[in-house]
Structures are given as C-alpha cells and as structure tokens.
Amino acid sequence: MGVPGGPGGSLGLVEDSRGDSGPWDPLEFPSPATGTPLHPLILHQLAVSEPSLGVPQFMEMGFVDGIPFTRYDSEWGWMEPLTQWMKDGAEPGYWDRNTRRAEKWQQVAADNLETVQERYNQSRGLHTLQWLYGCDLLSDGSIRGSDRIGYEGRDFLSFELGSGRFVAADSTAEITRRRWEHDGTMTEVWTNYLKHECPKWLQKYVGYGKKELERKEPPDVHVSGKEEHGRLILSCHAYGFYPKTITVNWMKGDEIWDQETEWGGVVPNSDGTFHTWARIEALPEEREQYRCRVEHPGMPEPGIFAWEPTSGGNLPVVVTVSVIAAILILVVIIGFIIWKLQSGNTRDGGREGARFHPAPFQESCATDADPTVFPQGERTGRDTTWQPVSSSG
Questions:
Q1: CATH tag, 37-213
Q2: Residue 226 CA to chain centroid, in angstroms?
Q3: If you compute the radius of gyration of the chain from its CA atoms, what whole number of angstroms results?
Q4: Is residue 267 helix, strand or coil?
Q5: How confident is the model at residue 142 (pLDDT cuts 50, 70, 90)?
Q6: Is this model's pTM higher than 0.70 or not?
Q7: What residue spans carry the Polar residues bias annotation (predicted)?
Q8: pLDDT of residue 311
Q9: Least CB-packed of 41, 266, 296, 331 within 10 Å?
Q10: Which of 186, 150, 142, 134 is nearest to 165 (CA)?
C-alpha cells in the first residue's frame, strides 16, 4: 500500500471539460464518458482548520456505487467498515493497514491546508480542504479516472487522465500545477493509479459486495403537475432504484427537451436505494404532448410516463367514503352515550345520571435525531507530499 511521498495508488477528482471552478458533487464523476458506468469507486477526504466537537480535523469516507462503505475520522482514530459485506470480505490486516494510511494522510492534509491558507493570505478562521479521487469501470470496457482537489468548497486543482495534465482553477493553484508538471513524478503516479491500481481494488470491492452491488431494482416512477401563473409545471420522480445509474428525460412529442429540463441530483435513500427527479415547464394546453422517459438497468426497456390529471378523480370518492365513515362512528358514539345515560337513570332513579370519568390525556413529544451530515468541501496536500496513496489494503 502506498503512503504519502511513496509509491502506490490513490483516488482523486478530475475537473470537467467545461473548466468550471464552482462547487462540485463529491459522488459524481464530472468528466464525460462514452460507456455506461458500472461501479464507481470514490474516496473523499476532508480537512478543517478549526476542529470542534463533532467536526473532526480530518475525515475520510470511501464510496462504491455512491454508497459509503468505509470511514475514518481523527476523533475516532480507526478505519471502520460501514457495510456488512465490507466487514465480512476484508482480508486480515486490512483495517490496521488502512488506519495507519489514514493517519499519515491526516498529517499530510493538515500541512497542505496550512500551505493553501498561506498562499491565499489567510490566517485564522474555519477553512476546508477536500481531496476526491477514484475510478469508474464503464460498460464499453474503458476506465474513467478522477482526481480533484478543492479549497473552501470550490475547485483548486484537478488532474485530467486523458491528457495527463493538471488543471489549475486560479493563479494560486497555478503555483502547484507548475511545480507538479515540472517535476513530472505526479503525472506518472496518478496515471498509474487511476488506470491500474484503482480499478484493481474496485473489482475486489465489488467482489466483496457482489450480491448487494450487482442487484437491480427498477424505479417507481410518479408524474405530477400543477399550474402556477399560467404555466404548467410537470415533475417526474423516480424512487427506490438501484444501481445509481439512471436517465430521466422530458420529451415533447418524440423530441427530448433537455435544455428546458431541470434535474435533481441522484440522492441515496436510507435503505441503500436512490431517488431523483426531473421538472419542466409547459403551456397548460400542450400538456398532452409531454412525456417522461426513464431508462434504468433494472428496466427491460425505457419507460414512458405521462401525467394523467384525471387519475386524481378517485380523491372525491375517498373523501366521500371517509366522511360517511366518520358520520357512522359519530352516530355509534352518540348512541352509546344515550344508552349509558338511560342505563344510569334506570339504576339510580335518575338522581345522578351517568358518571363519566375521562382518562387523563398525556401529550407526547417525539423528536427526530439529527441526520449525520457529511461535510461538503474539497481537499489538497503540500507540493512535496501531494502524492496518491492507496485506499486499499
């Protein structure tokens, strides 16, 4: 296993072809590819300048298919499995080796964060540094590698596997880019890792969790619509699908209208599945021309879904039945009260009537536990130590 400053592989993120320097999704590969992703592996590291209770100085999480499967943080001080298949599959010594690797990365990240703060002429305050790296096996047999470093939640430096070049997001990152490309070692190390080392470990992880990771659960698709200010907003929601790969498009007639479509991210559910949505605005009179097209590995063929407002016609029936049921229950309660009053009058001559002893009402207050939030941001390392290290044993 590689360590900072030594040989070995590592994971990272590549800046996309548009050269954006804005925020990025730590679970997405931004670079385009021709094949369909099969199983992505991503390692996400985060360092903060001012740790506090619940916010460790350093954290690392590994993701396969967008599902977290390993975790380390400086407070806990130990690399641990987050899935049963990883716990059962890892060979002896895996957790010891990766804990030591994460501890070395922790020191590297702290040094790198200090370096970047100095370059931006910053001193005190909360600052974040992220490093994301990984690979993806595609259906056409190709490999997509990603190595991305960021500061304060925005791009700082990235590596393009295809061209073998680093891309700087600003003049400050340009200092590091020049040093790395002049040295030449970093290009060789990252290319070897992303093309060879990372895919090898990805295949091993997929082997550990084959039953879970290669299952196919088709999405449950719901289409809805509502009118606002003379416009019809159509929404297409896909729920409970696995794997993460999915395509949701709005069509007008036989043409896909991607330019007019707004998409939500592919978000994990607590049960290991995912959900997403796509929305489009239309003229109310053109409603029947719009269809939602959903393509997913769990579906034998793409599905076409339309909004049927008449399907809401069952609502009045449900409401009517509910009202009738409520009336019947009320009649029964009133009848029971009358019966009790009459029976009480019969027993005591009507002097006291029926006595009611209502049970005390106790109000309960339930609160939901705060969800664990994985911090957003990016990560870097010092010029002399920013070398990839294997996320595997």
A1: 3.30.500.10
A2: 28
A3: 29
A4: strand
A5: confident
A6: no
A7: 383-393
A8: 47
A9: 331
A10: 186
- Give the pLDDT score at 387: 52
pLDDT digits (tens, 9 = 90+) for 311-356: 444 444 444 444 455 555 555 555 555 555 555 544 444 433 333 2
337 Cβ partners below 8 Å, 6+ apart?
A: 354
Q: What would the two tokens of residue 125 be?
A: 């305050």
- The pair phi, psi for residue 345, each rounded to 5°, is -65, -35
Which residues sit opposite 55 in a β-bridge? Answer: 52
Higher per-residue confidence, 377 vs 221: 221
Q: Name the β-bridge partners of 304.
A: 293
Q: How many CB atoms lie within 10 A of CB 297?
A: 17
Tokens for 86, please give them: 């990883």
Question: Which tokens hold the place of 359?
Answer: 């049970």
Q: May I ask the CATH architecture of the domain 220-297? A: Sandwich (2.60)
Can you tell me the distance from the alpha carbon of 11 to that of 156, in angstroms, rounded to the nearest whole number? 16
**Residue 44 amino acid letter:** H
In the chain, the percentage of residues whose pLDDT exceeds 90 is: 51
Instruction: Copy the structure tokens of residue 280.
Output: 């489009």
Residues of the chain with CATH 3.30.500.10: 37-213
> What single letter denotes the amino acid at residue 110?
A
